[in-house]
Amino acid sequence: SGRLGRIASLLPKNKNKVIVSMYEGVSSGKSRYPAYFEYDFKRNKRGRLVLRENPKAYGVRFDAAGNPRLARSYDVSTNEFISLHRAVGSSKWVEINRTHRDSFEDWSVVGLDPANTENLLVLAHNGMNTVGMWAFDTSENKLSELIYHRKDFDVSRPRMHSNKWENAGEITAVSYYKDGRAHYEYLNDEEGAIYTQLNSIIPNPDRLVITSRSRDGNTMIINNSGPRDPGTDYLLKDGQLSVLGSSKPGLASDKLADVKNIWYKSRHGEMVNGYITVPNSEPPYPLVVMPHGGPFVGEIIRFDEWSQMLANQGFMVLQPQYRGSKLRGLDFYKTAFINGSQGGAEMQDDKDDGALYLAEQGLVDRDRMMMFGWSYGGYAALVAASRTPQIYQCVIAGATVPDPNDQLSYYRNQMARNPSSGSVEQITFWDGSVHPIKEVANVNVPMLIVHGTVDQRTPPRAARAYIEALEKNNKNHKSLWLDGADHFGNTLFYNHKLELYSAMTDYLANDCFTEKQNLAAS
Q: Is the pLDDT of residue 153 over 90?
């Protein structure tokens, strides 16, 4: 008895079998670590046991032949994540790397070395500012050769061969995100030529990937997405390209907005980039500054529903990649907290400087600028509401963090239960950041507070306390509670979006950019 988990390996060289994971003894509570079995489709029967996971080796990854090759573990005595490797034909796991839970450096195996499949390809900093791709020699148990590296941007996950049946596990390109978009250095000329051709025939090509391909290579399914394409699947068969379907067929590409990357200099000397969604009209535009959540994540150019909704209403949207954002190396990331928290300080300046830059360029109206953010972005919006001198006419703060002390206490509880959720960055950052709950008396623009009633990331109690403080201080504000909504986008359903978008557009039209508020802010 047990519960089926997932297909762990397609066994591309064996047409009748796959490897599946099975959680055994579910009823008796013995299902934390799965077992792996061969499954024969032709006989519709579970076959031999391949292995069972355990606390010392879990998260197993297989090669194309079905050999267990990689696993991981965690040492609670040292707070280290452990990477494990197993040679073909061996039953012994060998430790190949340890990374402390509070390390800032990346180290992850992304595939087998095509020059020697007993060796590995690893993405790692290895003492450098940016992530590079390295060869790892399993016989010497060390990184042996730097295969690809850039000084300006981190190397990201590689592109695998589109024909996973005949070329399973083969890495065909190294990728990195420059100016918000993926760039590829191809190691396989044929794969590079195929993608070049697809980019020339598919409308509005952006994040284009072959998601499935026949064994003979002649038929393939391609997915494309980007600012002017929310997501479309195509079938290429017998030389003919046809549309299979779209994730948002009601949105016409010519009605959507382009997204461009810009660079500007912060008042502290660093060059900061940002993504601007440009309405299909003429400047100067009203501006929405929309910082990403996290804050320690890497944001890329993609189809963004919120940006497109606002651009459709005539707003330019700036998504600043402020200090602390990833993909640009350790130095830029760590400047947000390593020498003291920059939450509400230099991180906030990076956002404001982007807005002022766009105004200086004549692209936006200096008297019609606001900030909207979610999660950390909502925190930034609260900080913006009490800044002096004030450059925004209003703010909208969603799923926000009004009280960093309360949030940090909540994080500490999570860290104790889950080692992967805690790091020096969170403690240092929130401990030393500006506390909006203490700045309510300084709020000088109208604000709209939005929060889900069952938010498990930023608990609603802090937002309720902040709203009460606004009321006690007679501050101009409105609030919207999304019933049944949690923190992340996949919990915002149609009814939530209808409420949210209606409230936002109404607020921007009637409460933010009014003559009275412009005078109050000037």
A: yes
